[in-house]
Every structure is written in C-alpha cells, then in structure tokens.
Amino acid sequence: MSTRTKQIMRVRTPEFTRHAERIVEVTDATSRLNVLPFSDTQGRKELLSVVFGGPLPESVTIYPPFFTEYGLNTTFGENVFVNQNCTFMDKGGIRIGNRVMIAPRVSLITGGHPLPLAERREYLSFAPIVIEDDVWIGTAAVITQGVTIGAGAVVAARRGGHPRRPCRHHGRGCARPGGQEDRLRATETGRLPAPVRGASTIGPRCRVL
Fold first, then answer.
1. What pTM does this model have?
2. pLDDT tens, 30-80?
3. Strand, coil or helix: what is 75?
C-alpha cells in the first residue's frame, strides 16, 4: 500500500456499491453540463450544484467540459478559476484555496489502485490533494493523491512525451511533470524550500526557470 494512502475502499462491499451509484449520478450530470451552450450560465450553475452537492461560491468559475467521478469531496475558496477539460477525481478529498488558477486539461486524482498484481482489483486507495492559496497549475499537469501544493507555487505545464520526475530540491516527488530541459532551483533567498509536509509539496520558492 502506498505511504500516501489515507483510506481504502474494498470492492464487492456496500460502500463500493454506493460509490458506483454516485459515479452514474454525477456522470449523468457532467454529460448534460458538457453539452450546454456556453451562454447558458444558469443551466451550468444548476448542474454544477448537482455535481458538487450544493451551490459553489459566486466567485468560482468552472468552464466545461468538466469531469469527475464523485464531486462531493471538493471544496473551493474564493476567486477560483478552472479552465476547460479538467478532471477532478475527488473521492479522497480535494481542497482548493483562494485565488487558485487551474489551466486546461489539469487532472487532480485522489484515488488509485495498489501496485501488487494480486491486490490490484481488490480495493481502491485514496488520499487528499490540498492546493493552497494563489497557486497556478499549468496546462495538462497531473496532481496525484496525497500531494499538497504550497501557497503561491507555480506547477509547470506538462510537455508531451516527457515523464514526470521528482524535484531535486525536495529529494522526492513533486506534482510537477517535467522534461529534460526543465530546471528547478531555489529562488529569492537561495535556500531550499521548506521541508515537505505530508507526502509531496511544491513550496513558493520552487519554480520552473
């Protein structure tokens, strides 16, 4: 089991059955959301209330298409902008702070499967994603379970064909896809970012140059 796992949900259980039912319900809602005319702001607002289990703050903007498998475990701060074609798999919990900007095709994935083959279909594992205030997440970035992104950080856009890699300043995984041409280094004070909190953190001094 991953060290980032905070909860598990075994298949063939009543909990898993309820989760599967919610997937059907929310996917029906997002399917309708994603074919609305863009000018139908009232219809979008109503369907997003179904997706997230209640009305969003007035200052939150989400452009469809949008995808989720659950929707009930995402919380938003004020003045959040989510661009087109994003996916929030939020069963494990997603907390988005104030003034966060999320570019197109970003994926926030709080769940996964165990690595051992014998266990892979036995249960799902989950851990929360926390995005602190004033974060900017670039196009097509993938943030996985257990990651915290520190206030003011910038997460680089994904570049096609390049694998994810750890940030060498933290010594373990950051939620930053990177290519060979990318360089991360501490800025402002010349010191390394603060120690990793939880599983993985991108701090405000860890930036793509």
1. 0.76
2. 999 999 999 999 999 999 999 999 999 999 999 999 999 999 999 999 999
3. strand
Angle, CA of 49, 137 and 1, to the nearest 5°: 85
> How far apart, in whole angstroms, are the C-alpha atoms of residue 50 and residue 174?
32
Q: What's the gap between Cα 36 and its chain centre?
A: 24
In the residue annotation, 113 being an active-site residue is answered as yes
| DSSP code per residue over 127-194 | --EEE-TT-EE-TT-EEETTEEE-TT-EEPPP-TTPPB---TTTSS--S-B--TT--EEE-TTSSPPP
What are the phi and psi torsion angles at 9 (to 5°)?
Answer: -135, 115
Q: Are strands 136-137 and 154-155 parallel, antiparallel or unpaired?
A: parallel
Identify the three-state secondary structure at position 109: strand
Residue among 113, 162, 169, 170 flagged as catalytic: 113
Residue 32, both tokens: 């309708």
Q: What's the CA gap between 30 and 173, in Å, rounded?
A: 32
H or E segment at 32? helix 14-33
Q: Is the pLDDT of residue 85 over 50?
A: yes
Distance CA 72, CA 22 (A): 9
